[in-house]
Amino acid sequence: MFRPGSSSSKQRRHATAFFLTFLALAAFCLNAPPSRAQQAPETLPLSQVKPGMQGYAYTIFAGDKVEKFDLEVIGVMPNSLGPRQSIILVQLKGPKVEHTGVVAGMSGSPVYLDGKLAGALSLKLGVFTKEPIAGVTPIEDVLHPSLQGNEKVNVASTAVPNETAARKGLPSGAELQSIETPLIFSGFQAAAIQPFASQLASMGFVAAQGGTASPRPDDAHLAPGDMAGMVLVQGDASINSACTVTAVEGDKVFLCGHPFLNLGNVELPMARSRVLTTLSSDLASTKIVNVGGTIGTITGDHLTAVTGELGAAPKMIPLSLELKTPAGEKKLHFELVNHPKLTPLLVALTTFNGLTQNGLYGEGTTLNLSGEISLNGHVPVLIENTFAPGDSLSPDGMQVALNVMSVFTRIFSNSFETPDVQNISLRVESTTGRQSYSIDSAWLEKGEAAPGENLKVRVLLRPYRGAPRIVEAEVRVPDQATRGTSLRVLVSDAEWINRASRGFAFAGLGGQGGPEGLDQLISLLNRERRNDRLYVGLFAPSPTMLWDDKELPNVPLSQINIVDGRPAPGSVQVLRESLVSESSVPLDGPVSGIISLNLPIR
Questions:
Q1: How far apart are CA 458 and CA 470, in angstroms?
Q2: Architecture of domain 318-432
Q3: Confidence of residue 510 (pLDDT cuts 50, 70, 90)
Q4: At 160, is the secondary structure helix, strand, or coil?
Q5: Rounded mean pLDDT, 472-482
Q6: What is the CATH topology of the domain spanning 46-177?
Q7: What's the mean pLDDT when you consider all of the chain?
Q8: How far apart (Å, rounded) are the C-alpha atoms in residues 537 and 559?
Q9: How far apart are the C-alpha atoms of 515 and 410, rounded to whole Å?
Q10: Pairing of strands 286-302, 211-212
């Protein structure tokens, strides 16, 4: 007989307490999210997935807490994503997911069946649906995207049941589509994003307001259910994507369960994402996210997954933007990814936002843009243009953004070499009012001229809502001009004289008839005339040969025939006139218009 307080009684109490603690710990482990130390989870092949299987998935709804929600397999849809690309159709269950539906940013959430990792949540079915139906990318396609479609599916055992087949016949708008990837904008106003909404939507993005969180030591400690994504822009404003992590194997991270843009092999910075809350919506629920520290590199963007590696992040392109107005000056600094399909749009979006969402900026002002793009191994690309406000509802600063975007598109779409952009420096100076001019009329000082003579040309300009003014330019008649012939005097803006002197080499830089290297392309870009100058050109009726970036005026027809008959004449263009003399008059605003005059040579 044991008395309370005896040694044996205490041992029994201690043993009972230890046993209860062990049971509680075991129960917690069975229901807790996968351990952050887990590197190689046991997976379930697609061939073993059957309708009616019960499972669960992990995601974050708020904070850093990875939460579990239940689901049930409806069936497998063979060849749904593409040839031999199957999808597991599931119904999400539980109060939270039945309230939110499938949430933008949930893509990549790891799905477990029979306690094994079966796939990544990646698709949603329909809009305004009463049931949260989702598609799951099979895990073998997530972990081994290069072997997609090699798994043979037992269609007899995993075919979609009648109920699901009926769902496939739902009206338009109820088809399976990728869960939207939130594009997190920090430091951006909606007014700055709106002009680019159609381009962002065509890429499958949902623009969402977010913020930036200070880097933390545990940013790189990823586990299934956490969130991470691509860094597109960082600095005084940022743009990032956000997806859920499906699996982590060593330093390799698998997320999203569907492509970001299907860019293939890439090198883009990868950052941790931290969820503030989940916004529920009958149309499109989404996660509100802050972007944390950079944790590595996104290395692959494929049909069934985005992959990354923990560690060092790739180099980005520095962009400095300086705005000077009568009210003061402000400097902003950003970094952008270096990618031919992304950089031109990101430069435009970042420039437009930095310019217009600025306390010093105001509509109705004339904007002078200058700057340069530094390229490794090449001379800088110079940017200089002036833009006057218009009468349309389009923001005045949009012209600046589109001009910068155009230059970058030409550089990145060249067919010669991959440009290594080192730095972008832009400066915008704002002048009050609308400074612009149209060419009204022009006349020559004399009705004819002699070879070697300097000829004055007077031009009547009409400023916007201002008094007309006369400006004077001078061109020189070449010494070799033939007496008894006529030359053409072209009074115009920059675009018209560019077209007259360069033909389609001006309109299609880098294409057929254009330059044959990046150096030549840069040379052509840097020689483009400014739109805030009045140009007077004197053209002689003799052919000009454009060869790569070189202009060869007055070339004899015999030599043109020899060169133009070479095996690859695509880079040679012949114009019927030669620009023999040119002058310009600088103004404080853009010029538009064209007038052509005849000049007899006596």
A1: 7
A2: Roll (3.10)
A3: very low
A4: coil
A5: 93
A6: Thrombin, subunit H (2.40.10)
A7: 82
A8: 25
A9: 12
A10: parallel
